[in-house]
């Protein structure tokens, strides 16, 4: 049972400028919560606190009921899989890139993770920039495809909790749709916190939390938020 809870969390990088001013929410086991809000609202700060890069000045964060203030960063990293916004690919096949960090994974497990993230058709391909033989060209992956490689890599490690920082780059509607599908598939049944940059990619989240100026301005399902205007 992987449950993440923020309880009245206050945080400031510098005392004179509070970033989070009493944030409370729960990601229930197996559910998906999306955090949205304007740039600078404090969305990424939430995930930095969850990994203990910083400590809240007030309130607390718990994982499975345990205050993370007493948990080693190492253990948090093992329990929480982070899919970063920008992924730098190693100069090797997409399959190698997915396997990175879990070399013992079987071919079947690799394929399963890649399929879930909808990047399986590229497993054998080399990303652009690879030192390919003369006449051959590496594959130029879009931002969305790179993020799906990162999603597959995280899925393969199998952490009970997933934190996904959505790509910020401008995406065409087809790519957006593909990311939404990949998100739907990987988050199903997993405790997932999505730092969302587009409301359209998290329409199915169990709860959407709108951050504004350090406070929760609105919360609810996509439909409920739409109804509220
Ligand atoms: P978001 O992810 O919603 O765009 P962030 O959580 O990255 O926002 O940042 C929230 C605010 O905190 C921004 O105004 C940002 O400039 C500020 N900030 C982020 N990191 C630092 C830091 N290390 N020191 C001081 N201020 C920071
Ligand atoms: P269920 O058991 O009904 O699938 P979930 O909580 O896993 O319960 O998901 C509820 C709905 O939200 C599902 O349709 C799922 O696909 C969708 N969903 C979950 N996470 C996301 C996400 N990050 N982005 C978009 N849709 C999501």
UniProtKB/TrEMBL annotation:
Ranges for the ABC transporter domain? 4-229
Which compartments is it annotated to reside in? Cell membrane
- What family does the database annotate? Belongs to the ABC transporter superfamily.
Give the protein's recorded name.
Metal ABC transporter permease
The opening ranks of the lineage are:
Bacteria, Pseudomonadati, Pseudomonadota, Alphaproteobacteria, Hyphomicrobiales
């Amino acid at each position: 049972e992987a449950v993440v809870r923020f309880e009245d969390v206050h945080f400031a990088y510098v005392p004179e400028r509070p970033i989070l001013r009493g944030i409370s929410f729960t990601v229930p086991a197996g559910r998906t919560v999306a955090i949205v809000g304007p740039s600078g609202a404090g969305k990424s700060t939430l995930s930095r606190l969850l990994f203990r890069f910083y400590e809240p000045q007030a309130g607390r964060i718990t994982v499975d009921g345990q205050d993370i203030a007493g948990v080693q960063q190492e253990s948090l990293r093992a329990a929480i899989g982070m899919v970063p916004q920008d992924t730098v690919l190693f100069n090797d096949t997409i399959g190698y890139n997915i396997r990175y960090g879990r070399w013992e994974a079987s071919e079947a497990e690799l394929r399963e993770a890649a399929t879930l993230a909808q990047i399986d058709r590229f497993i054998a391909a080399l990303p652009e920039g690879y030192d390919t033989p003369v006449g051959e060209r590496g594959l130029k992956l879009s931002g969305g495809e790179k993020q799906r490689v990162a999603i597959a890599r995280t899925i393969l490690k199998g952490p009970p909790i997933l934190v996904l920082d959505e790509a910020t780059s401008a995406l065409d509607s087809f790519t957006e749709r593909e990311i939404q599908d990949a998100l739907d598939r990987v988050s199903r049944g997993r405790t997932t916190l999505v730092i969302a940059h587009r409301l359209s990619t998290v329409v199915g989240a169990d709860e959407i939390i709108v951050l504004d100026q350090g406070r929760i301005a609105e919360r609810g399902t996509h439909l409920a938020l739409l109804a509220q205007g």
